[in-house]
Design a protein that fits this description.
Layout lengths: L2 H19 L5 H14 L4 E6 L2 E3 L2 E3 L4 E6 L3 E6 L6 H14 L3 E6 L9 E5 L2 E4 L1
Parallel strand pairs: 5-6
Antiparallel strand pairs: 1-4, 2-3, 4-5, 6-7, 7-8
Length: 129
């Protein structure tokens, strides 16, 4: 499956979660429900994946964790914030670099219309969805 189709399926799953729950819950609730929807669609998804930092040839546990890693290709960060801030984008870009993934999604569920809460990022590029 190509990465564009994969991100479309992830976004479709997020729309289902947002349609069912609406805004106002904790990030952890959206993350769990999104993982359920993604897995239910037949995709492999991992939650809270430890992401070590490579420093001077060694891997160090610095507490970084990916919210969701779908098919080991797309990093998904679930948010429930007023708006996506530059710090959220920087976090996702760092996670992409550390994981060697090329594509990531920030999905902010704390919006009336989910389309306004989705940010797709490609390592080296920046795309709003």
């Amino acid at each position: 499956m190509e990465v564009n189709e994969l991100t479309e399926r992830i976004i479709g799953a997020a729309v289902e979660v947002h349609r069912e729950l609406g805004p106002g819950l904790l990030e952890s609730a959206y993350e769990a429900c999104l993982a359920f929807e993604i897995a239910d669609s037949g995709l492999r998804v991992e939650r809270q994946v430890l992401l070590p930092l490579r420093y001077r040839g060694r891997y160090l546990d610095c507490g970084y964790r990916l919210d969701l890693w779908v098919e080991r290709l797309v990093v998904v960060e679930a948010k429930a914030v007023t708006r996506i801030e530059p710090v959220h984008e920087a976090q996702l870009l760092s996670y992409l670099k550390l994981s060697s993934a090329k594509v990531g999604l920030i999905i902010n569920f704390h919006v009336p219309l989910l389309k306004a809460g989705i940010k797709r990022m490609v390592l080296g590029l920046d795309e709003s969805t």
